[in-house]
């Protein structure tokens, strides 16, 4: 490995690790760039490798609002990590209100990855500050037990989280700056990227399937006004609890249909915490408790 390559000394250290290497950082700090480099190094070293993408707002693997697992068996796989081998539904692109499903989804796929890989790169959410961000990263670290955390920061924005993880969980943390020449995306570009990702998750071959009110999790109370489900994002689940992909609910005169590409294997629908417009693919946040119980 030539010393002119990005993060050369850090990567030399990391390639000898076993288990989970977790990459954390805010948006536009090069987390996915770092992840790809680590995956490539591990492949070249003859390791069995997996990638778990837990950044639900800027998904590299699988659809937005989901955690995705990808087995990386060759350098060719690194050119396009978008296809997920396993997906778990979180239901939102923001952590507020979905910390529990986000942590469970991440821990579940990391455990699945451990069964077939000895080197796993975990790419985490870009929300790493504040009560919600720190709670999310704390519990992901607690359950996934990374051998090493790589914290990428421009200044000292991660120092509170780093201190917390070291103090309470004894985490090993290596700090790094973003790579030089990083392509920093502005808010409009990030929004366009997210819309394109949702569009890709629904198109082409979008079909509509009529569903009964009993197929949802959480379950709906009796006399629930089904019109309130209009536009809700759902995870299309199979009988093994895996998420097949995304769906969006449509209501028409007491009838609920789900627009999805995965209806032929559908066994149930998990309600998310967002609405999505299938014409524009714009989204808005929904408090699930308020939706179901009106409080």
Structural description of this entry:
It is a single chain. With 295 residues, this protein is an alpha/beta fold. The chain folds into 2 domains: 8-176, Rossmann fold; 205-293, no CATH class. The chain has 8 helices and 14 strands. The strands form 2 sheets. Strands 4-3-2-5-1-6-7 form a 7-stranded mixed sheet, sandwiched between helices. Strands 8, 9, 10, 11, 12, 13 and 14 form a 7-stranded mixed sheet that branches. The mean pLDDT is 95.
Topology:
Elements: H1 8-14, E1 19-25, H2 31-44, E2 49-53, E3 66-72, H3 75-79, E4 86-89, H4 99-114, E5 119-123, H5 130-144, E6 148-152, H6 159-169, E7 173-176, H7 187-202, E8 207-211, E9 216-217, E10 232-237, E11 243-252, E12 255-260, E13 268-276, E14 283-285, H8 288-293
Parallel strand pairs: 1-5, 1-6, 2-5, 6-7, 9-13
Antiparallel strand pairs: 2-3, 3-4, 8-12, 10-11, 10-13, 11-12, 13-14
Helix pairs in contact: 4-5, 5-6
């Amino acid at each position: 490995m030539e010393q002119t390559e990005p993060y050369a000394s850090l990567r030399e250290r990391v390639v000898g690790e076993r288990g989970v290497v977790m990459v954390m950082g805010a948006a536009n700090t090069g987390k996915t760039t770092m992840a790809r480099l680590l995956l490539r190094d591990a492949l070249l070293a003859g390791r069995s490798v997996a990638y778990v993408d837990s950044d639900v707002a800027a998904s590299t693997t699988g659809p937005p609002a989901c955690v995705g697992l990808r087995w990386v068996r060759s350098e060719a796989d690194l050119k396009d990590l978008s296809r997920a081998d396993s997906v778990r539904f979180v239901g939102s692109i923001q952590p507020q209100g979905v910390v529990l499903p986000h942590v469970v989804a991440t821990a579940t796929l990391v455990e699945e990855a451990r069964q077939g890989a000895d080197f796993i790169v975990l790419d985490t959410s870009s929300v790493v500050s504040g009560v919600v961000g720190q709670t999310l990263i704390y519990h992901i670290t607690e359950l996934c037990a990374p051998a090493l955390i790589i914290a990428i920061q421009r200044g000292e924005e991660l120092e509170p989280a780093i201190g917390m993880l070291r103090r309470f969980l004894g985490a090993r943390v290596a700090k790094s700056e973003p790579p030089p020449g990083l392509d920093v995306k502005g808010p409009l570009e990030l929004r366009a990227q997210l819309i394109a990702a949702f569009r890709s998750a629904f198109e082409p071959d979008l079909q509509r399937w009529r569903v009964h009110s009993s197929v949802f999790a959480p379950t709906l109370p009796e006399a629930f006004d089904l019109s309130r489900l209009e536009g809700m994002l759902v995870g299309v689940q199979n009988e093994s609890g895996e998420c097949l992909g995304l769906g969006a609910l449509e209501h028409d005169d007491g009838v609920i249909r789900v627009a999805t590409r995965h209806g032929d294997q559908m066994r149930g629908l998990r309600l998310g915490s967002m609405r999505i417009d299938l014409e524009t693919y714009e989204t808005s946040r929904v408090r699930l408790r308020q939706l179901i119980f009106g409080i």
